[in-house]
Design goal:
This protein is an alpha/beta fold and about 325 residues long. The chain contains 15 helices and eight strands. An eight-stranded mixed sheet has the order 3-2-1-4-5-6-7-8, with helices on both faces. The radius of gyration is 19 Å and the shape is globular.
Length: about 325
């Protein structure tokens, strides 16, 4: 089995820091790259990411750096930069990336400018890399504190996929192997948009019945898009699809759901975003999800309603009325 003992992490936000902590807990040597110098300094001096993941004592073996060249000796790299910034980060890392290095894509989104999945962005920026996708129901704070978490690790090369699982997995962080990268990516991107919808429903006090309906009908949208792009229904029914959807749509701890919650209560999107330092991926991915669905002839009314609200084209009230007045149809349609 392929072994990976030295792990690089691109991105020192909450999730990147949590994955660095997990890899260190699994006994790996970890180099964590941060775009922000102050974040790297605090991690190295205090062994805590006080900005993005406060109150979590990090392994002292985690080495935070700000130069991408410092990851040139890693056996594998986890790419955890936000989806809309991933291309720029990968382009910066490309000159230092060893040929054939596995790069595990951990950002959940679709690139707005190109409508590409993260695997497509990787193929264009570091074509020699071996792609993998890590996705599933996981909050950074839970994972970093060693609370039980299960995720999907998708890799077409099963030997490399199993090697990555052995390198990152612990009794409390359990990756399950899949080979369907497209399904894993679509699940992670679409669930963020649907979580905004569920947050809006909660903010408007529409009730738990409406919440359950949004999750189930939203899941149908996710499956339709995933299969249109070549993903598998079985993948989307697992941890990286339905599992992640249930978690993200059910807790205000989710940045996407909390964004929707504020929108539902009448807070303007600009005010919500200006109060946050961390990225809310669903806001950036919504227009890309909707446009990609249109290109493939896939109907996604919930995601489209969210996109209209975020763009200011319709009010929350009108979007809700539009969904409620859609024609009755077969559940499988």
């Amino acid at each position: 089995m392929t072994q990976f003992n030295t792990i690089g992490v691109l991105g020192a936000g909450a999730w990147g820091t949590a994955l660095a902590q997990t890899a260190a807990s699994a006994g790996r040597s970890v180099t964590l790259w941060s775009f922000e110098h102050d974040v790297a300094d605090v991690i190295n001096k205090q062994h805590e990411n006080t900005i993005y993941l406060p109150d979590v004592a990090l392994h002292e073996s985690i080495d935070a750096v700000t130069a991408l060249t410092d990851l040139d000796a890693c056996d594998a790299v986890l790419a955890v930069a936000p989806a809309q910034h991933l291309r720029r980060v990968l382009e910066g890392f490309a000159p230092f990336a060893p040929r054939g290095i596995p790069i595990v894509l951990c950002a959940k989104g679709i690139e707005q400018s190109s409508l590409q999945l993260m695997t497509d962005v990787l193929a264009e920026t570091i074509p020699s890399a071996i792609p993998a996708v890590l996705s599933g129901p996981s909050f950074a704070i839970d994972t970093s504190k060693g609370l039980p978490t299960a995720v999907t690790l998708a890799c077409e090369d099963e030997a490399i996929g199993n090697g990555l699982i052995q390198a990152l997995g612990t009794p409390r962080f359990r990756p399950y192997l899949a080979t369907d990268l497209t399904g894993a990516e679509v699940g992670g991107a679409v669930k963020n948009v649907l979580a905004i919808a569920c947050g809006i429903s909660e903010g408007r006090d529409l009730g738990k019945s409406a919440h359950a309906a949004l999750i189930s009908r939203g899941f149908a949208e996710m499956v339709r898009l995933g299969m249109a792009l070549g993903g598998q229904r079985e993948t989307l029914s697992g941890l990286c699809g339905l599992g992640d959807l249930v978690l993200t749509c059910s807790s205000p701890q989710s940045r996407n759901m909390s964004c929707g919650l504020a929108l539902g209560r009448g807070v303007h999107l600009d005010d919500i975003m200006s109060s946050r330092r961390a990225v809310t991926e669903g806001v950036a991915s919504a227009p890309a999800v909707v446009e990609l669905a249109k290109r493939h002839g896939v109907e996604m009314p919930i995601c489209e309603a969210v996109d209209h609200i975020l763009a200011g084209r319709v009010s929350v009230e009108d979007a809700i009325e539009g969904l409620l007045n859609r024609p009755f149809t077969l559940e499988t349609a």
